[in-house]
Design a protein that fits this description.
The complex is a heterotrimer of chains A (about 100), B (about 300) and C (about 475). Chain A has three helices and two strands. With about 100 residues, chain A is mainly alpha-helical. Chain B is of the alpha+beta class. Chain B is built from four helices and 16 strands. Chain B starts with a strand and ends with a helix. Helices cover about 35% and strands about 15% of the residues of chain C. Chain C contains 14 helices and eleven strands. Chain C starts with a helix and ends in an 8-residue tail after the last helix. Classes of the chains: A mainly alpha (about 100), B alpha+beta (about 300), C alpha/beta (about 475).
């Protein structure tokens, strides 16, 4: 199964990961090899229970009891102003209910 | 009638819980920014989600009220995409095995009287934080107080046939959800949000291409936006062109609906939240709880 | 009353000596921090089961004394504002946290060579790797710097370094130890495990950190792990299965000889040795290398420079450019490889072909184990690693080669069953490990068998 350079770049964009040409070339070869290797799973017949883990998880009581931060966001945030986390402005992408002044 | 309009609505509703969906932070609206946050809803390394029992109970109550089939086993999944107010880089939602499916809501249409709208599915998910653009010039500012607040998403079948019917559906839905004390459905405070899907076709033809309209902040604006979009699509087709499948945004000032660059939601939905067992629904207990509310 | 301060000072000297040799087991450690902890424990008259023990913590586990870097640049200097539940339990048991140990970046690797901060050297032979991804913790115990250490497993990352360094490593049943505060790599596989110089100390550490935690909804609700008892002198009545897929033709002769010797000892102790089969073993590595990267690509999406950690935004106008530059600069080669691989197998069009299939293969691997244990077998015995510790740089050219070193250990992670590695021999001076695998929640059984074997074997004996 060979992965193309274009696919590597598309996947890298999905994963918001900058990948330069040299790295993309290397990844193309490595990933193709790995995918060839994992393709042996095709030997297994399809179907079968595949119902996943039957265990049910635990739920939490609805009460306000937060796990406190033992250090405030100012200690670890790269950029904080007026209590808000700051990032370079989002480009044209607009979720639709974000606020603009 | 020359044209038939087909509308389906996806409604996101915040649940009336004290704490968030996956952590013990307060779910209250209006507190100073980033004061109701913790490792879980900030997506800090090593934090883990633990689901809120009342959120499940309220979601099931809503599902019963809407006549849905409630599934005793459902699964959380991840919807991965990158956005500044999405702290984990994924939203915990439900995908292939949602909490409930197959319900209905009775609505009175101004055009054709009482009719039934099908409810395709109802599932649980968490809300994202809130982004503010240009409050600080050139920057986007994020408040994570809302991150992790419990939501149910209610998806209707495309059974609505006009902007006015869409509004009637929303009014009826709000009435039900408020009456059973699942949500206060306050659009101004963001506890109810609507994404509207609209397409047009000549009667008897297959469904046309639909667009999705977002950013409408009141029921009357939903009606206005859909009326505009209906007209726009008809005009496009009558001009001999094709309707493009786009995400649109509503401009309340002008009443226009414009295309917006759609969010690159490349949903890498890991069905079955890795490291998370299935959602247990104590069917009998929740059914009795719902009955108690409905008949009290 | 334990002399905590003496324990702290002695440990500080031993750690300094270990690091002075260039072992680089630690990314952060502090004699001062240990002394401060000692004073606190003294004042509280602490006397828990780990009172005075000096424990090192792998750097993918959050603590409040030191940074938590996960061996990555993207978390360089990051101080977690909360503590992992396992670390809290350590402290409550009276242990001193010595520092944070080196590891492959985000626990992805089998040699600790993928750490962004440089490799760790195997204390037994510094030209060789200590194994990975918990190589720093293994080296810290093997060199005598600390009594015990916490590591983590996603695909064998405690047992394999334990084998390479000649110490004991235990991976518990999935859900035995809380993952709250363990930086997620493959959430359905991750578990915190323990290292010790012998079975009893590794078991004692595991017992101290185990148990239900409300902050982790996957933790077991069952009978807690008890403290290890004395080593049994007889294994009469114990049935030990040897899965034939784990002793293949062409297995390294030293590893083979070591296993034969250990099995002979087990027989002498009265155990019944039975030939069994885990038929889907050959699919373990392909399954693991789809499931783990897929989950990793999702779990590592949170490292985006928005709320903590590295941010590269110099002169960038747009947040997406910030994401790409930050993640491109902050993640190393192997992590990037796995994120791309994981994103690929989850993407539309490939999801069913890869991830869907891998999930079904995983179910088969799980049921292989269930069937074998339902057939009256108490534990399985296998080699831990296909070779002794390899040389630094030996497996870096071909990632697939590196992945294959996990061939005997990763089925236990996929199935969620507990597993332990103990030193059983040496081959030309290099440690070799034997692996015991138990049924779900069967830690006590494998610990008991391991103690008996340990007492009967001379673990540093040359095997050829």
């Amino acid at each position: 199964m060979s992965v193309t350079r274009a696919e590597i770049q598309r996947i890298a964009a999905l994963a918001e990961l900058h990948v330069d040409d040299a790295t993309a070339a290397r990844l193309e070869a490595e990933l193709s090899r790995i995918l060839d290797y994992v393709a042996q799973l095709q030997e297994l017949p399809d179907g079968g229970d595949g119902d996943g883990d039957p265990r049910a998880g635990r739920l939490r009581r609805d009460e306000v009891a937060p796990d406190r931060l033992e250090a405030p966001p100012t200690d670890f945030a790269p950029a904080l102003k007026q209590g808000l986390f700051l990032v370079p402005r989002l480009g044209e992408l607009d979720r639709g209910e974000d606020e603009s002044p | 009638m020359a044209w038939e309009t087909v509308v389906g609505l996806e409604v996101h509703v915040q649940l009336l819980t004290r704490s968030k969906m996956f952590c013990g932070c307060s779910a209250a609206y209006g507190d100073p920014p980033n004061t109701n946050v913790c490792p879980v809803c900030l997506g800090l390394p090593g934090a883990l989600p633990v689901p809120n029992e009342r959120a499940v109970r309220l979601a099931v109550r809503a599902a019963f009220a809407l006549g849905c089939a409630v599934h005793s086993r459902s699964i959380f999944a991840r919807k991965n995409y990158f956005y500044p107010d999405l702290p984990k880089g994924y939203q915990i939602s439900q995908f292939e095995e949602p909490l409930a499916t197959g319900g209905r809501l009775e609505v009175v249409s101004p055009e054709r009287g009482p009719f039934t709208v099908g409810i395709k599915r109802l599932h649980l998910e968490e809300d994202s934080g809130k982004s503010f653009h240009d409050r600080v010039p050139g920057m986007t500012a994020v408040d994570f107080n809302r991150s992790g607040v419990p939501l149910i998403e209610i998806v209707s079948e495309p059974d609505l046939r006009s902007p006015a019917e869409a509004r009637a559906y929303l009014t009826a839905l709000k009435q039900v959800l408020r009456w059973i004390e699942v949500s206060d459905c306050n659009m101004e405070e963001g506890s109810l949000r609507v994404d509207a899907n609209l397409s047009v076709r000549r009667p008897g033809e297959p469904l046309g291409t639909r667009t999705e309209v977002k950013n409408v902040n009141s029921f009357s604006n939903v009606e206005r936006a859909l009326a505009f979009e209906q007209g726009r699509q008809i005009a496009v087709i009558e001009a001999g062109e094709q309707v493009e499948q786009r995400t649109m945004t509503f401009d309340a000032a002008t009443g226009e609906v414009r295309p917006t660059r759609s969010k690159e939601i490349f949903s890498l939905a890991l069905s079955g939240l890795a490291g998370f067992f299935s959602l247990p629904v104590d069917f009998i207990q929740y059914f009795l709880d719902a009955c108690q509310v409905f008949f009290s | 009353m334990t002399d905590f301060r003496a324990a702290a000072s002695a440990a500080a000297e031993r750690i300094a000596a270990c690091e002075a040799k260039g072992t680089h087991a630690f990314l952060a450690w502090s004699g001062e921090a240990m002394l401060e902890q000692a004073r606190g424990l003294e004042a509280a008259r602490a006397d828990g089961p780990l009172a005075g023990a000096v424990v090192a913590v792998k750097d993918v586990i959050a603590d409040r004394w030191f940074p938590t870097t996960c061996g990555s640049r993207i978390l360089e200097g990051y101080r977690s504002p909360f503590e992992a539940s396992a670390v809290r339990r350590l402290r409550e048991a009276g242990a001193l946290v010595a520092g944070k140990t080196n590891c492959d970046e985000f626990a992805m690797g089998s040699s600790t060579e993928y750490s962004a901060y440089g490799p760790t050297l195997n204390p037994v032979d510094p030209a060789r790797v200590p194994g990975g991804s918990s190589g720093g913790s293994a080296a810290a115990v093997a060199s005598g710097a600390v009594d015990m250490a916490l590591g983590t497993e996603t695909g064998g990352s405690v047992r394999q370094p334990a084998a390479f360094c000649g110490i004991v490593g235990i991976k518990p049943t999935y859900g035995r130890v809380s993952r709250y505060g363990l930086v997620a790599f493959g959430s359905s596989l991750d578990q915190i495990g323990s290292f010790g110089k012998d079975v009893a100390s590794a078991a004692r550490l595991l017992a101290a950190i185990s148990g239900r935690d409300d902050r982790d909804s996957t933790t077991l609700d069952r009978v807690p792990l008890s403290e290890p008892g004395p080593a049994p002198t007889s294994l009469a009545g114990t049935v030990i299965g040897v899965p034939r897929e784990y002793l293949p033709e062409g297995l390294h002769p030293g590893v083979r000889a070591a296993c034969d010797r250990a099995l002979k000892k087990l027989k002498e102790l009265g155990a019944e040795i039975r030939d069994v089969s885990l038929p889907h073993t050959k699919y373990a590595i392909p399954t693991y290398y789809i499931v783990a990267p897929a989950e990793a690509s999702s779990n590592l999406a949170r490292y985006d420079g928005v709320r903590y950690g590295l941010r590269e935004d110099g002169g960038l106008a747009d947040v997406r450019a910030m994401y790409r530059k930050t993640r491109g600069a902050g993640f190393g080669t192997e992590v990037r490889r796995r994120i791309i691989l994981g994103t690929y197998v989850l993407s539309a069009g490939y999801y069913e072909a890869y991830y869907g299939r891998a999930q079904r293969a995983r179910e088969r691997i799980r049921s292989d184990y269930a069937k074998v244990f339902a057939g009256g077998v108490h534990a399985l015995f296998t080699p831990t690693a296909p070779t002794p510790a390899f040389r630094l740089g030996e497996n870096l050219a071909d990632p697939l080669q590196m992945y294959l070193s996990d061939i005997f250990v990763c089925t236990a992670n996929l199935a969620g069953v507990p597993s332990l590695s103990l030193p059983i021999a040496r081959d030309q001076g290099l440690p070799l490990g034997g692996q015991l695998i138990g049924a779900m929640e069967g830690e006590s059984t494998i610990i008991r068998i391991a103690q008996a074997l340990e007492a009967a074997l001379e673990p540093t004996a040359e095997v050829r």
